[in-house]
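Sanity check

After download, print the first record. It should look like this:
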Amino acid sequence: MTVTRIGVGDPTGHYEVLVGEGLLGELPALVEGAAQVAVIHPEGLGDIARSVIDALGNGGYTVRPMPVPDGEAAKTAAVATELWSRLGSFNFTRSDAVVGVGGGAATDLAGFVAATWLRGVRSVLVPTTLLGMVDAAVGGKTGINTPEGKNLVGAFHPPVGVLCDLSTLESLPQADYIGGLAEIIKAGFVDDPVICDLIEDDPEGATTPKGGHTRELIERAIRFKADVVSGDLRESGRREILNYGHTLGHAIERAENYTFRHGYAVSVGMVFAAELARLDGRIDADLVRRHRDVLASVGLPTSYTADSWEALRATMSVDKKARGNTLRFVVLDDLASPTILAGPSPELLGEAYRAVSDGSGVPRSH
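Expected structure tokens:
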């Protein structure tokens, strides 16, 4: 399989996202000059983590495996503190490097630890989930969660490279794979409608790593994010559009104590944002319906419990995109035409939420 190289960044800080299979041979060169390499990975990752560790060891590096809890349980100050202590015990210097392997939570954590150790050491990210490949590992945003919300503590710290080995997706649980599709579909609605077309052409194929459009979907989503990030490295402008569906999505995740998959929460959040845009006179009902149809066709949820609104509204007020007391939502003026809706009225927000709540609850399997 050929390797696709997608550039991210500007002349002051550029790296590549590699997409293909058998990419671990690229890893040793990315950490050249390091005496030690810390490999931060979920405890349950198993063979994939061992392959990364072996590739670095065979390249002549002293490897420090650092397993962390699976999923969002890794993204805490306590886990980060433990990792800092371990780096200190190994006398980690600025010429050493961190490799983050796993899903979005693991790569977020690894990037944050790399950003904060000695005010910044090199990091390489090896995402092993669909969500990690198309979103979390691309863009240089790192972070951990707090009891008050998701990703409220973090830093901008671009990696020196991202390796997306598509073969790792074959062992991904189906529910996790479907969750990652939400970020691909997001790219379709805010920038690249071909993504929506491809999923509508073969929704069943979109839910599997062996689908006829799978690689194209992944590469289109990565190119979208790379383009946005390259023009706005620190989220001072256009990069905010990447948060389509995320304001409500993050609130749902917190309400579920981060046991609800990110992509499933963002899926509901996108329908909510579409309803907001419709009610504000920006888009028509057909585009809202297309959101529901595309998301539901791959098994993503489009509604959430009716009695959760007050708690979700309170959580959204501490969303990192808010400005003072003003809530900001990414919405659409049309397909692939995103904009910002600042300070919508409580009545508008409540009406939009009623449109995505059915009162029946959401299965915990999400």
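If your output differs, re-run the checksum step. Summary of this record's structure: The longest helix spans residues 262-279.
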